Amino acid sequence: MYLLEVDDYRILIDCGLDFDLDEKGRRLLYEEQESVFPFEASMINIVLLTHAHIDHSGHIPNLFKEGFEGRVVCTEPTLALSELLLHDVARINRRRVDSMSQPGKKKKKKKKELPKDIYLEKDVADAMNSFVPVAFGRAYRVSEHVKVTYYPAGHLLGAAHIYLEITENGQKKTLCFSGDIGRMNYPLVVDPGPVPQADYVICESTYGNRTHVDTKSPDDALMDVIQRTCVDKPGRLIIPAFSVGRTQALLYVLNRLYVNRKLPPIKVFSDSPLAHASMRVYQRFYRMLNRAAREFQEDNGELFDFENLTFVAGTAESQNLSNYKEPSIIISASGMIQGGRVEHHVAANIQNPYATILLIGYASEGTLGWRLLNGLEHINLKGEAVKVLANVEKIDVFSGHGDLTDLENFIRQHDADKLKKIFLVHGEPESMEFFRSVLNGHHYQHVEIPERGSSYEL
Ligand SMILES: [Zn+2]
């Protein structure tokens, strides 16, 4: 979340929810403070949203609740995906609220006021009324002094780099916010696109100290795991995956394998209603996907659905998957095994030596995904220490963030002599420090790693 002030016009770039975890590894949704924001929400004039992921969009309904009256500007697919994701948070919040007001207690006590950062379905619906879609590659004037252009960033359907041209007292300044930077040749989404030279660049640095080590294509990497875990040793393959972005990439690759007659005749279960809804958005905006995906859609009429695939709808149906004894693949959220239906699948199979849990993305410390990745022999399930007998594997090809090379490529579009400053954001400290040293090596001398809450005059 970045607040940009041009005279007295205030622009917020992204408005994300933090994924802080408590000691039990639960996501913290409650903050006991006066306001969710370190500024007055009603003073903001406009929000520019790079993409739909909750760590970029998740606080938007709270901004409206606290008095924001402006527009939220984003691409059309970002609008559609944000609506799904924000409603998903509202549903989680609703369950929290219901569990806070246990029956019996609430009659005696006065109704407890909700924590500030809790929003519900109606708040999301209200916020969505103020979303305005824009096209890629077109400059829009948002105020007398400010023009904004969205450029494709890869990463997720609709994701953008945001480029701002600010003219003040006859002087022009340009800023480029990277948003999340995708990687080259990722299934479905386009490669991160070029942006014009900027004076200031605000760049993400998730993988600023990492180079992806894929030696195989997504198809081959996935097929290799399926062969070993569902065919050679006939078992169950459980893939925890984020519902929006990651699951679509997986299902599309599986569909491609199916169409190319490489996929053995095993059942694939996609167990996430949010993933299913997002798939329809991907399907609807397929013209904005990469060329291979567009051609696949035109040849096959379907990006995701194939004969062996079952979409699991209800929770009862989800629980019943344990009774399906044939080799199968279960794809379910969340990706870090932190909440969501996949928790149940992992619990049901953790002591099954014929089961494999395949992690395909980043898992933050404290999550069950992180503990499995770090080879813990016992994990805690419902208060009991359970020995891990299932196999745990990891592949890198489905990670949606660009690596060090992709980040370098993004910066190197900007001439070092013309670039006044680079701000590194959205990364662990070690990752940002390493990335800075690499950039310094490329003669980018003015690289800043800002503290949270600090301000700069440009
Ligand atoms: Zn993202």
Question: Which key terms come to mind for this protein?
Answer:
458 residues; 14 helices; 6-stranded parallel sheet; 21% strand; alpha/beta; 2 domains; 7-stranded mixed sheet; Rossmann fold; binds zinc ion; Metallo-beta-lactamase, Chain A
Commentary on this structure:
This protein is an alpha/beta fold and 458 residues long. The chain has 2 domains: 2-210 and 400-448, Metallo-beta-lactamase, Chain A (4-Layer Sandwich), CATH 3.60.15.10; 218-394, Rossmann fold (3-Layer(aba) Sandwich). The protein is 31% helix and 21% strand. It is built from 14 helices and 20 strands. It has helices at 54-57, 60-65, 76-100, 105-108, 121-128, 218-232, 246-259, 273-284, 291-300, 315-320, 342-349, 368-373, 404-412, 429-441; strands at 2-6, 9-13, 46-48, 71-75, 131-134, 139-141, 146-152, 160-168, 171-177, 200-204, 236-240, 267-271, 309-311, 328-332, 355-359, 378-381, 384-387, 391-394, 421-425, 447-448. The strands form 4 sheets. It has a 7-stranded mixed β-sheet, with helices on one face. The radius of gyration is 23 Å and the shape is globular. The chain starts with a strand and ends in a 10-residue tail after the last strand. Residues 21-31 have low confidence and may be disordered. The site of zinc ion has 5 residues, from loops.
Q: In CATH, what is the homologous superfamily of the largest domain?
A: Ribonuclease Z/Hydroxyacylglutathione hydrolase-like
Predict the CATH topology of the largest domain. Metallo-beta-lactamase, Chain A
Q: How does CATH name the architecture of the largest domain?
A: 4-Layer Sandwich
Count of alpha and pi helical runs: 14
Strand order of the largest sheet: 6-7-8-9-10-19-20
Tell me about the largest β-sheet. Answer: 7 strands, mixed
Net shape: globular
Given helix and strand content, the structural type is: alpha/beta
Bound molecules: zinc ion
Q: What is the count of structural domains?
A: 2
Average pLDDT across residues?
92
The value of Rg in angstroms is 23 Å
N-end to C-end Cα span:
18 Å
- Taken as a percent bin, the fraction of beta residues is 15-25%
Helical amount:
25-40%
